[in-house]
Design brief:
By secondary structure, the protein is α+β, with helices and mostly antiparallel strands. Among the domains are: 3-204, no CATH class; 374-519, Histidine kinase-like ATPase, C-terminal domain (Heat Shock Protein 90, 2-Layer Sandwich). 58% of the residues lie in helices and 17% in strands. The protein has eleven helices and 14 strands.
Length: 522
């Protein structure tokens, strides 16, 4: 078969057939739903009439009927109202029957006509003849959970039937008979069940079903003819395209010859490009050699700079020790001849020399941590923090403090450098929470964006977040030296060590409410 014939006739025809079949079944399903709605309205109306009739009979306490009619069904002996009460109206003997008796007559008439079955029942009927069937029993049990009407279509011995059941609520007028049975107003004492045959309802929509089927069949035939005509037209166009194809193939052959010439020119161009690439590689090798030379020069310069730093530190320490020593000697030997202002000046001079010495040591330390070789391994951060916390307690054994260190903290890092980070962070937390009645310092970790974030938190003086950018700069201090000692180098050292590990460090705080320092390690 011609492939164009398959694509333009068979495939659209199959698709159209599937669409028509799906639409047909959808519309037939809608008609079935319409039949269900009609039946629902019918049985609902019947139940409403029965309920109105029962209420009317209940209000009047019964109904007078000819005596021979009342004899067709035995009076109800279970309602507590003994009947009959006989009267004569215009020579006709009448008997009063109670509401339950009327309901039994309605049921009997419905059974006789065979197109309607009304049944009033409950789970505890006084009259054993009013026992519910299995379906009614299931609905009555459901009423105990929720008083909602039930409607279904079931299969019966004679075919399909619609079944509908509503709960019967005890009303004030009903208590005349049922109050003696323990019922109260508003109680559910049973249900009214209505059953009607389904076929008459579906027969009312038989004409619409036939029209729906005929309409879909006609639409399928009409569109099928249109598809066939369109396919024939495309077949003629296909033949014309075959002729064009042959002429195009001839043109392609000509263009192929031209392309062979162009390819030869490209091969020559590629040769020139390879020569240029070789020259570029040679230039890269020269650049790499120059980079290696510059690297060696930079390493030599770093070594000289480190030696210079140590020399400067040594040269600074000597006069600083002299200043400190001479200040102490003057205070010891000539303290009695000095006034308080002179002693204060000497004390400040001594303290300044000590701070200057500490600053020199911290600067050397900062230089060392940025140049030392890193040796990564798994580090027990919990044990390290516990050791540093013990050292802090040893410096001030009388101070009240609580350390909450999370268990199982591990990190892949250089142990010596990581210890410097933890010593600086815990020492800061210990220092800046000293004025609290009880210092609380937490060490732990959290997960953020798939990374482990370690933190050190305290309840100390905190800081203003407006100045957070200054925390990690050398010599930057957010509090004066008179309040808390320090050189301002510690956090700068922490930042450089964390960055050497490929991580980040940041801080959060609030004045008077403590601070939290976070850091990550790659």
């Amino acid at each position: 078969m011609n492939p164009l014939r398959v694509s333009t006739f068979v495939v659209p025809l199959v698709v159209w057939f599937v669409i028509v079949v799906c639409s047909l079944f959808w519309n037939l399903a809608l008609l079935d739903d319409q039949a269900m709605n009609i039946a629902h309205l019918q049985v609902g109306g019947i139940v409403s009439l029965v309920k109105v009739e029962r209420l009317r009979n209940t209000i009047h306490g019964g109904l007078f009927v000819p005596t021979e009619v009342s004899a067709s069904v035995a009076p109800d002996r279970y309602s507590g109202i003994m009947m009959p009460e006989s009267v004569t109206v215009q020579g006709l003997a009448m008997t009063k029957i109670n509401p339950a008796h009327v309901g039994q007559q309605v049921e009997a008439i419905g059974k006789y006509q065979k197109h309607l079955f009304v049944h009033i029942t409950s789970l505890r009927p006084l009259n054993t003849q009013n026992q519910p069937d299995e379906w009614e029993r299931e609905q009555l049990r459901a009423f105990e959970r929720t008083a909602k009407a039930r409607f279904e279509m079931n299969e019966a011995g004679g075919g399909r039937v619609f079944r509908y059941m509503v709960p019967v609520m005890t009303e004030k007028e009903c208590l005349l008979c049922h109050g003696k049975q323990g019922f109260r107003e508003g109680d559910i004492r049973g249900g009214i069940s209505v059953t009607i045959p389904a076929e008459p309802v579906f027969d009312t929509l038989a004409g619409q079903r036939t029209m729906t089927i005929a309409g879909h069949g006609g639409a399928f035939i009409l569109v099928s003819f249109m598809i066939a005509g369109y396919s024939r037209k495309l077949g003629r166009q296909w033949n014309a395209l075959e002729g064009l194809k042959n002429s195009q193939e001839q043109l392609v052959a000509e263009r192929t010859a031209e392309l062979h010439g162009a390819n030869e020119a490209l091969r020559q161009e590629n040769t020139l490009r390879r020569d240029a690439e070789e020259a570029s590689l040679q230039l890269n090798r020269q650049l790499e050699q120059r980079v290696a030379e510059r690297t060696a020069e930079l390493q030599a310069a770093n070594s000289e700079l480190e030696a210079f730093c140590y020399s400067v530190a040594h040269d600074l320490r000597t006069p600083l020790r002299g200043m400190n020593g001479f200040s102490r000697i003057i205070l010891e030997r000539y303290g009695d001849t000095l006034d308080e202002e002179g002693k204060d000046y000497l004390g400040r001079l001594s303290a300044a020399s000590v701070r200057m010495g500490q600053l020199v040591d911290d600067l050397l330390h900062l230089t060392k941590v940025t140049r030392s070789e890193m040796r990564r391994r798994t580090v027990d951060l919990t044990a390290m923090a516990q050791e540093i916390a013990a050292d802090c307690r040893h410096t001030q054994p009388d101070r009240r403090a609580e350390f909450n260190i999370q268990g199982g903290l591990v990190a892949n890092a250089d142990e010596n450098l990581l210890r410097i980070v933890m010593v600086n962070l815990l020492a800061n937390a210990w220092k800046f929470s000293a004025r609290e009645p009880v210092s609380r310092i937490d060490v732990g970790s959290t997960e953020r964006d798939g990374k482990t974030v370690f933190f050190v938190k305290d309840n100390g003086v905190g800081f203003d977040m407006a100045y957070v950018g200054k925390l990690f700069g050398p010599f930057e201090r957010l509090v004066s030296f008179n309040e808390f000692e320090g050189t301002g180098i510690g956090l700068a050292t922490v930042k450089r060590i964390v960055e050497r590990h490929g991580g980040m460090v940041w801080a959060e705080g609030e004045p008077g409410k403590g601070a939290t320092f976070h850091f990550t390690l790659s």
